[in-house]
Specification:
single chain, alpha/beta, TIM Barrel, Chorismate Mutase Domain, subunit A, 2 domains, eight-stranded parallel barrel, 8 strands, elongated, binds phosphoenolpyruvate, binds manganese (II) ion
Length: 363
């Protein structure tokens, strides 16, 4: 689907876009205190969850409609624009009624096309920016599907928020970032605003800076960070929230990269290096082509001798040898595994094609 997007804020192309505020609105004082402190830092958008989608019932599920009145006060007192999460028709209606400036769709909503459609139907005909978090699971189509549903409701001020993906293995993150997805979104939709939610990626305070810096290095348009006056006592997501002062310190340390430059010498050097990379990519492709021709020959040979395609001992040997050689070249084990598995799978596909063809086995 062809889509063109508008900037999510009134100042077009403002970067970085800074979104900060508590995970949840808890009390009027907590909301206003945080907003006053953040207003002094000139943030662009004040966030606060009003309805909280919690994994299990019984945890704090959000303050509900009374909290919207506090956000209204934030706007009146500080002039900050405000944003909150919506997941259902009545959330949208109440948020609009209370003058919420930007809506966001949470990760647990993006996974469900019924819910996203319900939100889309509720905002149809309203001119309001909408931010769409990635779904819980790493499914790029599902994320794009949510963007399309909101776009079809007539919303063009759309942004996406990368908040990482649920992962079952051991990891230092609460939700593992998968930077290839936002990079791919930027490639397909260059005018789509892309924000990094470092709080929900990290789930802890000590790596918030590194993840935000990584997002800036990858040319994200902004960050969303959870800020609370007394993080340890927060009613939700206590481990990842930071104080307004800590946020100021974190933001002050972030290095912003320029998306581009008009310095001729720089551009010429870059062009030269990119040409070299293109040549190397061509060489790699031509070698891969040759490798697959060999796989075809092996396939024909195995067919003639009626031997199974998959030879586990051979595959182990390729993997171990490749990882060891990769390490010498400074290539990580993680990369080598992905790379070798992809090549191996393609070889198997080639051999299978040969095996199942009518052609007689011959080298
Ligand atoms: C949140 O922003 O507080 C939230 C619930 O986030 P997510 O949807 O990313 O889990
Ligand atoms: Mn949260």
């Amino acid at each position: 689907m062809e889509m063109t997007f508008q900037p999510i804020l009134d100042q077009p192309n403002k970067r970085p876009i800074v979104i900060a505020g508590p995970c949840s609105a808890e009390t009027e004082e907590q909301v206003l205190q945080t907003a006053r402190d953040l207003a002094k830092q000139n943030i662009d958008l004040f966030r606060s969850g009003i309805w909280k989608p919690r994994t299990r019932p019984g945890s704090f599920e959000g303050i509900g409609v009374p909290g919207l009145k506090w956000l209204k006060r934030v706007k009146e007192e500080t002039g900050l624009k405000v944003t909150t999460e919506v997941a259902k028709t009545d959330h949208v209606f109440e948020a609009l009624k209370h003058g919420i400036d930007v809506l966001w769709i949470g990760a647990r909503t993006t996974v469900n096309p019924f819910s996203v459609q319900e939100v889309a139907d509720a905002i149809k005909g309203v001119d309001i920016p909408v931010l769409i978090k990635n779904p819980i699971n790493p499914d790029l189509s599902l994320w794009i599907g949510a963007i399309e549903r909101i776009y079809k409701a007539g919303i063009t001020r759309i942004g996406v928020i990368h908040r990482g993906f649920a992962y079952h293995g051991e990891t230092k993150y609460r939700n593992v970032p998968f930077w290839q997805f936002p990079i791919e979104l930027k490639r397909r939709f260059p005018d789509l605003t892309i924000i990094c939610d470092n709080s929900h990626i990290c789930g802890r305070r000590d790596i918030l800076f590194d993840v935000a810096q990584k997002a800036f290095d990858l040319d994200f348009d902004g960050i969303m960070t959870e800020v609370h006056p007394d993080p340890d006592k927060a009613w939700s997501d206590a481990a990842q929230q930071i104080t307004p002062d800590q946020f100021k310190e974190l933001f002050g340390r972030l290095v912003r990269r320029n998306p581009t430059t008009d310095n001729i010498e720089f551009l010429e050097t870059l062009e030269h290096l990119r040409n070299e990379i293109d040549e190397i990519d061509d060489e790699i492709l031509s070698l891969l082509g040759k490798r697959m021709e060999l796989a075809d020959s092996i396939g024909r040979y195995k067919k003639r001798n009626n031997i199974a395609i998959l030879q586990p001992s051979r595959w182990n040997e390729i993997l171990e040898r490749g990882i060891a050689k990769g390490a010498i070249k400074g290539l990580s084990e993680e990369f080598m595994e992905i790379y070798l598995k992809a090549i191996h799978q393609e070889s198997i596909n080639h051999q299978e094609a040969v095996m199942s063809s009518k052609e007689e086995g011959a080298i």
